[in-house]
Amino acid sequence: MMNKTVTKEFREKWISYIHSLQENICTSLERIDEKEKFGKDEWERLEGSGGGGLTRTISGGKVFEKGGVNTSVVFGAVTEKMKGLLNKENAAKWFAAGLSLVIHPLNPYVPTVHANWRYFELYDEADNVIDRWFGGGADLTPYYLFEEDARHFHQTLKNAIDPFGGNIYTEYKKNCDEYFSNSHRNNETRGIGGVFYEHLRPSDETGAADLLRFQQANGDAFVNAYIPIVERRKGMDFGPAEIEWQEIRRGRYVEFNLVHDRGTLFGLKTNGRTESILMSLPPRARWLYDHHPVPGSEEDKLLQVCLYPKDWLNTIISEEDKDEWARKSNSC
Amino acid sequence: MMNKTVTKEFREKWISYIHSLQENICTSLERIDEKEKFGKDEWERLEGSGGGGLTRTISGGKVFEKGGVNTSVVFGAVTEKMKGLLNKENAAKWFAAGLSLVIHPLNPYVPTVHANWRYFELYDEADNVIDRWFGGGADLTPYYLFEEDARHFHQTLKNAIDPFGGNIYTEYKKNCDEYFSNSHRNNETRGIGGVFYEHLRPSDETGAADLLRFQQANGDAFVNAYIPIVERRKGMDFGPAEIEWQEIRRGRYVEFNLVHDRGTLFGLKTNGRTESILMSLPPRARWLYDHHPVPGSEEDKLLQVCLYPKDWLNTIISEEDKDEWARKSNSC
User: Fold this and answer.
1) How close A261 gets to chain B, by Cα (Å)?
2) Which of A49, A52, A58, A59 is nearest to A73 (CA)?
3) B258 closest CB neighbour out of A57, A59, A258
4) CA distance A152 to A313
């Protein structure tokens, strides 16, 4: 059984971190946009039990067409429906706090980005903590493929994660490709991925402090992972053809978020704040019947890496590759 | 236990009907479009057991920006997952045939329309029919409210249905409002409704023949319910403000279809043909954060009848109305 006081302090540390991160990310994005600022919408949770959030959105910017950087700190009683999902018979109350962001730029050469870092606690009737975990990740959704951007994004995330253990990046990169994919479209991924992890459970307070640092390392890496890509691409010329392709890919983004994303569906079906949940949807989307880009075109190149996710940093050594290298070494 | 031969003939009658209806509807829509024709995509079902369909789509028309009028005749083995849903322990095989259409016009003053008529059979291991039912309906999604259009659409559907019994229209109109609504947006309906019905089970072959006629009456009414509205509105002037509102409402259409529509989700999650299922999505959609039309504006008038569905033909007499009328009669 965990110490209640430590857990309260711990929660407050996390809440304070996501609020300062929210402020930092908004400021960094405003600086690059030059035109628009993030608005502030504070809300209270009416359904369920309590808490609230701060929804910060931008729209009509010079660089960012639509985006949101939201924090929420919410708690409530465990419903019968949740009990089934949680698989904890003695669960009575829950607490969740996290930051979630989605940024949709105007220029089709600038990728959309999503990130989320969250912390969850579960209590029994006597307010003892019976479960707690962290989850999160960041992923990039370009409309046109620049391999250097993909490598930069993944490398920055990997650098942040590497100090925490051996092969974590490789595992979380794979999770991300698997999670952010449209099963109804041959598992086409939403973009070029990033990292995604769930249910990171500390075994004690030292472990919890380590995980908090891990989350902070991930959160702190975001601006460095994304902003240099925006800087490189924001001035590129584009026309109606690039906009059409951007809107088609945004249609896929909508499909993933509304059909498959567990967070979105859970929120919508448990009376979450709809406007804060659906701030993730793109400003514009397009659906053409049975559209396929011209093979070999720039549009097709992007589609191919969504259909066959790449190992951007060559961190995964498959058995076949190992054999191939062994053969090459032998033949030298 | 039902007679297998009769059922086969019956199925063939229904299949033949939906194919001729598909042809008729496409021809009527092409006539009004004047520019584009419906293409033909025949497909075979690869996953599951067998059958296929004919997907007919139009795009870039003078009147119709995007639309599909699809038929499918499919059959297969009942999976464990389906067994749970069907609640029939001895179910071994199934058969389904139907027509499904969604038409998205270019002009925001012309409403989007959806209709679907389907027939389903369930068999045991020995190929005996153990269940069979019809379902269907038609509903209208205007972007701007013209009460005469709403009344015309509902009246035409009611006229088709009325010969089949007392209060069916009123019941199916209510079903439609309840079904086509976004629970995550205070049950805002997708449009001004129409009729919707499911699980109409015949008790014998006479009943089955009656239900087939009922389906045909509904299917045959579609062109008369929709085309006069298109004729009235297709020449109206519009600008960027009307287009923006149309795209916002189309965003709601996407939300309903991808989050709530049972047919869409069943299709996507059982390896149905994605392009035929998602032909229902609009060509363009837009999401603005926390958008609300100006109170009293034309946009708001439409929204209000979605939030508070109207009884277009005054067929539902509420207890309050009855009291009100009683008071008025007494005071005269």
Assistant:
1) 11
2) A52
3) A258
4) 9
Per the CB < 8 A criterion, the answer to whether B107 and B238 are in contact is yes
Residue in the structure block whose two tokens are 């297709």: B234
Its CATH architecture, for the domain B4-331, is 3-Layer(aba) Sandwich (3.40)
Is A260 in the active site?
no
Closest Cα partner for B4 from B97, B132, B91, B105?
Answer: B132
ipTM here: 0.91
- Asked if A141 and A181 touch (Cβ cutoff 8 Å), the reply is no
Torsion sign across C-alpha atoms A159, A163, A168, A170:
positive
Q: Select the residue of B259, B268, B283 nearest A286 (Cβ to Cβ).
A: B283
Q: Which residue of B has its CA nearest to A286?
A: B284
Nearest to A259 among B258, B271, B284 (CB): B258
Does the beta-carbon distance from A184 to B281 stay under 8 Å? no
Distance of CA B119 to the CA centre of its chain: 14
CA B34/CA B24 separation, integer angstroms = 16
Neighbours of A16 (CB within 10 A): 10
Output the tens digit of pLDDT for each of chain A's 332 residues.
455 667 889 999 999 999 999 999 999 999 999 999 999 999 887 665 688 999 999 999 999 999 999 999 999 888 877 777 777 888 999 999 999 999 999 999 999 999 999 999 999 999 999 999 999 999 999 999 999 999 999 999 999 999 998 899 999 999 999 999 999 999 999 999 999 999 999 999 999 999 999 999 999 999 999 999 999 999 999 999 999 999 999 999 999 999 999 999 988 887 788 999 999 999 999 999 999 999 999 999 999 999 999 999 987 655 565 565 455 444 43
Q: From CA A287, how far away is CA B282, in angstroms rounded? A: 6
Within A234-294, residue ranges assigned H as helices are: 240-255, 262-269, 274-277
pLDDT at position A331: 42
Cβ–Cβ below 8 Å for B287 and A275: no
Q: Name the catalytic one among B104, B114, B152, B154.
A: B114
Query: Tell me, what amino acid is at B303?
Result: L
Interface of B with A (CB under 8 A): 41, 57, 59, 66, 68, 183-185, 247, 251, 254-255, 258-259, 265, 268-269, 271, 274-275, 278-279, 281-290
**Cα-flanking dihedrals φ and ψ of residue A119, to 5°?**
-135, 140
Report DSSP letters for B189-209, one per residue.
Answer: ESSSEEEEEEEE--SSHHHHH
Ranges of each domain in chain B: 4-331
Q: What is the pLDDT of residues B274-303, one digit of tens each?
A: 999 999 999 999 999 999 999 999 999 999
Counted across chains A and B, CB pairs separated by less than 8 A come out at: 82
Q: CA A86 from chain center: how many Å?
A: 22
Does domain A4-320 correspond to CATH entry 3.40.50.150? no
Q: Which residues are bridge partners to A43 per DSSP?
A: A53
Residue in this structure with the two tokens 């019956």, named with its chain if needed:
B10
Contact B287 A286 (CB under 8 A): no
Classified as helix, coil or strand, B215 is helix
Interface residue of A104, A275, A290 to substitute, partner B, most B CBs within 10 Å: A290
